[in-house]
Amino acid sequence: MTTVISFVSQKGGVGKTTSAVNLATAFAFGEYKVLLIDLDPQSSVRFSFGVKNPVDLGTKELFLKPDLPLQRLIRRTDQENMHFIFSNQMTLHEEQLISHVAEDDGFLRRRLEEAYLTYDFILIDAPAATGPLSLNAVCAADLNILPLQCESLAVKSLKRFLVSFNELQKKLPHRELKIAGILLTMFDKDLEIHKKVAQQINKALGGSVFKTVIPKNAQITESSALGRSVITYDLKSEGSSAYIRLMDELIDKFRLR
Amino acid sequence: MTTVISFVSQKGGVGKTTSAVNLATAFAFGEYKVLLIDLDPQSSVRFSFGVKNPVDLGTKELFLKPDLPLQRLIRRTDQENMHFIFSNQMTLHEEQLISHVAEDDGFLRRRLEEAYLTYDFILIDAPAATGPLSLNAVCAADLNILPLQCESLAVKSLKRFLVSFNELQKKLPHRELKIAGILLTMFDKDLEIHKKVAQQINKALGGSVFKTVIPKNAQITESSALGRSVITYDLKSEGSSAYIRLMDELIDKFRLR
Ligand SMILES: Nc1ncnc2c1ncn2[C@@H]1O[C@H](COP(=O)(O)OP(=O)(O)OP(=O)(O)O)[C@@H](O)[C@H]1O
Ligand SMILES: Nc1ncnc2c1ncn2[C@@H]1O[C@H](COP(=O)(O)OP(=O)(O)OP(=O)(O)O)[C@@H](O)[C@H]1O
Ligand SMILES: [Mg+2]
Ligand SMILES: [Mg+2]
Fold first, then answer.
1. Most A-contacting residue of B152, B177, B216, B224 (CB-CB within 10 A), to test interface
2. Domain of B11: which CATH number?
3. Residue A205 belongs to what domain range?
4. Residue-wise pLDDT tens digits, A145-182
5. What is the pLDDT of residues B110-122, one digit of tens each?
6. Are A157 and B224 within 8 A, CB to CB?
7. The pLDDT value given to residue A113
8. How many domains, in total, are found in chain B?
9. How remote is the CA of residue B48 from the centroid of ligand 2, in Å?
10. Is B50 part of the contact surface with chain A (CB cutoff 8 Å)?
11. Alpha helix positions (H), B30-151
């Protein structure tokens, strides 16, 4: 029984990739079989695992070569229990072709069906905003995680994302789209504004906010510079323990195992 | 003689909006006439100036109602010397229609021609990534500013953006696309990794990096929470003086006045 989890947000730079990378690693350490898919042309997932060279088959073929079996697109690194579909090099023209294919919101969901029996978890790192790739990620997911930086512009963007989410749900009455929760990220306990925004969000959307908060953590910044998950870089760091707690919270809350 | 300046990046959350908002305000304080255009459906510019209610005409009509004169889309606030085209509410379907219109990279550039004599500066805040709206912003601009957060993933994304930029240039041989410079933003002098990345960037791309560096500055975070430019919120803050220095550097470097 595979659970598909997408990381989506309207706002940029709120920790979608960091959360996908580190939650995937947490699951892998917990002996779950994970497939991590990078839908973003900027290829952050590949860099987050130290894969310096571009891959020849990946997200581009996922959309533009639908007859190519998923198996051909899947890569490994030295990480146990983790497989990847990396975002490979694409020209602006190819990006446009992909967005046309992805105007079919259900495309990715159907494409991933052949992977359902192989993996315990499929994690999807989406680009920011509500373009066709992000909507495909939302539609393919059993659970959507919405990272949120506790700053005013990110909160305003979240409101707009939730409106779009409802609009997408209405468009797909036969699919039950689910928000697993809002994940407060990059939380800086020394900033009054972060505490204030966290309070407002908890007050307005309490039940939907994960108990786990990801703190602003220097080891996380360092780990992405070194091309490693923070969990393999420094297991004892606050960043690592937060993402492991998030895994446990998810598993409990949604009875994933 | 109008100068059009776009704020673009592959990476999300690197300070495009903050830079567009604050540079626009700096120019306005300098008595220049400014039009600030928000191309991003998340509407951050409107929130950055405390405009709480959605506007009825704006970016949506800019693309979907090309016969509507620009004048009808332009709004003011109590800011002297500043006019705005705000991003107004758009459904996912309207977003898709806009992206189809924007597949013509030169659309925005032609649309803005009627504004050329009215303003000294037209500033365009683009969404992250290299989708049709961002490419329209690049193509419409005399000068493109690339904000860069001094962290590894943002640097990797910058590389990809520069490749895409060159690809766009080749596609438009009769237009001279120009990168004004890379603007280091959110620079945290207490983080070793930020200093290290800044050194690498200056070493690799020295001539293209603005001398002005925008520091990580609590007043900037606070100002966007209060719906004001940092310059009107706290003129003495490091954030304000940095964006004013950037204005001076731009004016000198490109002999804008
Ligand atoms: N908790 C944290 N503490 C410190 N740095 C963090 C934390 N989370 C993320 N970062 C850093 O912040 C930057 C943005 O994070 P990330 O790239 O994961 O966001 P994103 O939402 O995927 O961005 P994009 O919209 O560009 O895809 C990265 O450089 C990352 O290393
Ligand atoms: N120099 C700074 N110091 C402190 N906070 C900053 C600074 N610059 C920007 N910020 C804050 O960081 C967040 C991201 O900045 P901003 O929204 O301008 O980035 P962006 O590139 O426009 O993001 P997006 O990709 O979502 O459009 C905002 O909450 C903003 O207030
Ligand atoms: Mg990302
Ligand atoms: Mg922005």
1. B152
2. 3.40.50.300
3. 3-254
4. 999 999 999 999 999 999 999 999 999 999 999 999 99
5. 999 999 989 999 9
6. no
7. 95
8. 1
9. 11
10. no
11. 44-48, 59-64, 92-101, 107-111, 132-140
